[in-house]
Amino acid sequence: ASRIHVHIAEQIAEVEECIAFRGVRPVRWLLDHAPVDARWTLVHATHLDDAEIAALAASRATVAICTTTEANLGDGLFPLQPYLAAGGRLGIGSDSHVSVSPVEELRWLEYGQRLSARRRNIAVRGSASVGESLLRAVLETAVDATGFDSIDDHVLLDAQAPALVEATADDVIDRWIFGGNRPLVRDVDVAGRPCVRDGRHLDRDRIQQRFAAAMRRLLAAG
User: Which domains does the chain have, with CATH numbers?
Assistant: First the structure.
């Protein structure tokens, strides 16, 4: 089945304009006029009222929270606590290319909520740690949100990195997410195909060259 991604309710001005034009908030309008279900991903959905939170969670759609972009633009904080309490499903995204680090997105998703609530361990679920809760939450929605499902995807962390010394199964995910900015991923396989080895993408040189060429063309075009 096709997946549908829509950017919505990212900024207050967008919500106000929708109310002025249609007489209703954007997420409410979408839920009333489209068959929103698990195939749908609402990107941002930063500004929700209580009724939208409950209805969106019940729809089984995924909200893709783009923490670094929303912070960069001063959009606001997603209402994570009530959304999770309602059983809402979440993912993460970069939206822009200011940052393309899933670790940074997850870290600041939790930290932003802590700053707002002035307490710790916001995203924790059951007996799992915060890091494990966050990672499980986004992995649970990955197939519905992307349509890609491979049992041959693997991420191997660098056990020799200082941040992971004597790490255990109980704390390794939290160390990875909250242990600083040093890259801790050693190897990555996608659909059984090696993409990263010893912390280096196998096509890094070619990718960097193409990126630099694209940037020069864009900047030259003014």
Answer: 1-149 (3.20.20.140), 151-221 (2.30.40.10)
